[in-house]
């Protein structure tokens, strides 16, 4: 992989991590519960584009 591709991947991972942290914080404030984490996991799974195992 080219260095720019690695850098781009790192930026994307950091962005996703930051967004996930913020979303988790908001969900936890609004309505803490396991179903929210399941929904977030599904959301992240769909956002990653890895839908071929359904």
Topology:
Blueprint: H1 3-30, H2 34-47
Helix pairs in contact: 1-2
Can you walk me through this structure?
The protein has 54 residues and is mostly helical. The chain has one domain (3-47). The chain is built from 2 helices and no strands. The chain has helices spanning 3-30, 34-47. The longest helix has 28 residues, at 3-30. The protein is elongated.
Briefly characterize the structure.
The protein has about 55 residues and is mostly helical.
Name the descriptors.
single chain, 54 residues, mainly alpha, 0% strand
- How far apart are the first and last residues' alpha carbons, in Å? 29 Å
Order of helices and strands: HH
| Overall domain count | 1
Tell me roughly what share of residues is in helical segments: over 70%
Number of strands: 0
Mean pLDDT: 79
């Amino acid at each position: 992989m080219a260095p720019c591709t690695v850098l781009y991947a790192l930026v994307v991972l950091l962005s996703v991590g930051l967004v996930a942290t913020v979303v988790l914080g908001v969900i936890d404030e609004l309505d803490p519960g396991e179903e929210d984490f399941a929904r977030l996991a599904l959301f992240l799974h769909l956002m990653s584009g890895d839908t071929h195992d359904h």
